[in-house]
UniProtKB/TrEMBL annotation:
GO cellular component: endoplasmic reticulum; membrane
Biological process annotations from GO: lysosome organization
InterPro entries named among the record's database cross-references: CLN6
Keywords: Membrane, Transmembrane, Transmembrane helix
Organism: Mola mola (Ocean sunfish)
Transmembrane segments: 171-189, 250-270
Domain of life: Eukaryota
Protein name: Uncharacterized protein
Entry annotated with the keyword Transmembrane: yes
Pfam families, alphabetized: CLN6
Length: 302
């Protein structure tokens, strides 16, 4: 009886010793943040279809399907994109925005979308009559034919200011939500943060979309300020013993890759005199559509 009793006591002690260790391991495994592949896959595919697909929809869908006095296919895609992308990130964010911030973002989206739709509608109609995107408003042959000539002098400043204001109002909520989402992507320093293979594969299309967002959307200032804010957040969190998790690393790497693509894009077009004349300011980021009309459609400006 004594040997069997000792065996039972030893097994009970082993079980009592093993259970806390197992539960601690399970708790650590459960608390360790994982890469949200479904979120970033939906975010990337959605933006490519709704944002990058707008010019494709304008070119391939017949114009007779959408009357001139009503929104077109690109306008509907634009409305879906500016609403769906921030909401998708907010549903997975660990930070709940206050009601006042939501209302301000909604006002900014409505104002920016309205101005941008007007600017896009005017640009589309100008393209139909021979407007060249790679030239400035003042240098376009279509604008030179306007009467009186004083309209040509006032048009460039008004058009540029309206277009830049619409882009800022349109994309400001998106970059704000991206930064707020990133601020919640941190874990304890003892937990190793690694990106899975699926995240590395998704990094290329995500960085390519950010490149499109910077170049075609002319959002370099918003993008670089968001990236600086993310970098400052990482430095502040490291002092508290926190490091970016897999989602945070994915955002940092995708932003860095996008800036690299923009740098290569600008370097390749740095000595282009025509595009330089259209972007005379300190920040020189040519639009892909302007490059296409300049180099890929020579008959448009022959």
């Amino acid at each position: 009886m004594q040997p069997s009793t000792r065996r039972r006591q030893n097994s009970a002690l082993e079980a009592a010793t093993f259970m806390p260790a197992a539960s601690a391991g399970t708790e650590a495994a459960l608390s360790k943040p994982r890469f949200q592949l479904d979120l970033w896959l939906c975010f990337t595919v959605q933006n490519w279809l709704l944002d990058v697909g707008r010019p494709v929809a304008m070119l391939w869908l017949p114009a007779d399907w959408f009357p001139r006095n009503r929104p077109g296919a690109a306008d509907y895609l634009h409305l879906l994109q500016v609403v769906a992308s921030p909401l998708l990130l907010l549903t997975r964010s660990s930070w709940t925005p206050p009601l006042a911030a939501v209302r301000l973002c909604a006002i900014a989206v409505v104002m920016g979308t309205s101005l941008h739709l007007v600017a896009e509608s005017v640009t589309l109609r100008l393209l139909l009559i021979g407007y060249q995107l790679h030239l400035s408003v003042r240098d376009n042959p279509v604008m030179k034919e306007l009467k009186p000539s004083s309209v040509v002098g006032a048009a460039p400043n008004t058009a540029v200011k309206t277009y830049k204001s619409s882009l800022s109002c349109r994309y400001l909520p998106l970059f704000l939500v991206l930064f707020l989402f990133f601020s919640g992507c941190f874990s304890h320093g003892k937990q190793e943060a690694k990106m899975p293979a699926a995240a590395w594969m998704l990094l290329v299309p995500t960085a390519a979309y950010y490149w499109y967002l910077i170049t075609e959307g002319q959002t370099f200032i918003l993008f670089i300020f968001t990236f600086f804010a993310m970098t400052a957040t990482v430095m502040r969190q490291r002092r508290r013993g926190m490091v970016p998790d897999a989602d945070g690393l994915f955002m940092l790497y995708s932003f860095s890759a996008a800036l690299f693509l923009v740098a290569v894009w600008v370097a390749c077009l740095w000595s282009d005199g025509v595009l330089r004349k259209k972007h005379p300011g300190l920040i020189y980021v040519p639009q892909p559509r302007a490059v296409c009309t300049l180099h890929l459609q020579p008959e448009a400006h022959a």
